[in-house]
Write a structure and sequence with these properties.
This protein has 312 residues and is an alpha/beta fold. The protein has nine helices and 13 strands. The longest helix is centred in the N-terminal third of the chain and has 20 residues, at 89-108.
């Protein structure tokens, strides 16, 4: 993508800052972020002359004036914590549903060519039909998952009713640099790396044979840009299409970090799913092809968290 004017909502967050990084060299990027979770530190390494930062809440800003001369919208802003959504479903609804609706209305009313929505594999709930396909019946098990499913429906409706091109990307277990290991929604990889760096034993809930589909952040950025440049609309799984058990994950992290830390096993957590695996064949239609470099990707992630730790 070159010479475009784009907006990244939630552009100071983990995924949003990486999308900004992937676009900034050849495009003008406007970031909208209320800084409730995002950090300016996440873009401090970037040349800022092509970045316009607007601090504010997407439910309160005049988005139409912001979108007026923009080409594309990458909508990453959200309450991304399942526990927080359970604690305050009304706030989650306001941010994730009302916010998404406002983004879509503003895009429809301007010359925006496409909106790419960050959705989540959480919409599948505890479905056992692996690998998960986009036409699988949804079983959202939290207010967060409900809001993501609703955002997808709104995207489809705006495409069908108003002709606004939209794509909703169902992220699976994303990992990489700048992910917060201390957040309520911390993923296994940053949490395990952080624990081992501190000389602590990572905690595995259940027997560790539960599996996840881990996808590196740079592949997620690639998916966002490729679907945006394509004429594809609809819902797409964004995962690796490969399952890794939590026990296997700890083993590989130990190999990369040259450690032999044994995890602590605790009782399963209520609501945790046993397995998650994406069928990514639909996303291949716009050129999404994640590389099979899991250990290398973990190595890069470890280096960032450790600030240059020796990684085997």
């Amino acid at each position: 993508m070159k010479d475009k004017k784009v907006v990244v909502t939630g552009g100071l967050g983990f995924i949003g800052s990486h999308i900004t990084e992937g676009l900034i060299e050849n495009n003008e990027v406007t970031i909208i972020d209320d800084m409730s979770a995002g950090k300016l530190d996440n873009i401090k390494h970037l040349e800022t002359e092509n970045i316009d930062f607007i601090k504010g809440d997407i439910t309160e800003l005049n988005l139409k004036s912001i979108f007026d001369d923009k080409d594309y919208i990458f909508h990453e802003a959200a309450m991304a914590s399942v526990p927080k959504s359970v604690e305050d479903p009304v706030k989650c609804n306001r941010i994730n549903i009302t916010g998404t609706l406002k983004v879509l209305v503003a895009a429809k009313d301007t010359d925006v060519k496409k909106v790419v929505l960050a959705s989540s594999s959480a919409v599948y709930g505890d479905s056992q039909n692996m690998p998960l396909k986009e036409d699988e019946p949804l079983k959202p098990m939290s207010p967060y998952a409900v809001t993501k499913a609703t955002g997808e429906l709104y995207c489809n409706t705006f495409t069908d009713l108003y002709g606004l091109q939209t794509a909703a990307l169902r992220y699976f277990n994303v990992f990489g640099q700048r992910q917060d290991p201390n957040s309520q929604y911390a993923a296994a990889i940053p949490n395990f790396i952080d624990k081992i760096l501190k000389g602590e034993r990572p905690v595995i809930y259940s027997d560790g044979e539960q599996s996840r589909d881990f996808i590196y952040i740079k592949n997620v950025v690639d998916a966002n840009i490729k679907v945006c440049e394509s004429n594809k609309t609809g819902i797409f799984n964004i995962g690796h299409g490969k399952k890794t058990t939590i026990n296997e994950l700890v083993k590989v992290i130990n190999e990369v970090m040259e450690t032999e830390v044994e995890p602590v096993y605790e009782d399963p957590r209520t609501g945790d799913i046993k397995h998650s695996l994406a069928d990514v064949s639909k996303a291949k239609s716009f050129g999404f092809e994640p590389e099979d470099k899991f250990k290398d990707e973990l190595r890069e992630t470890v280096r960032w968290f450790a600030g240059g730790v020796k990684a085997k």
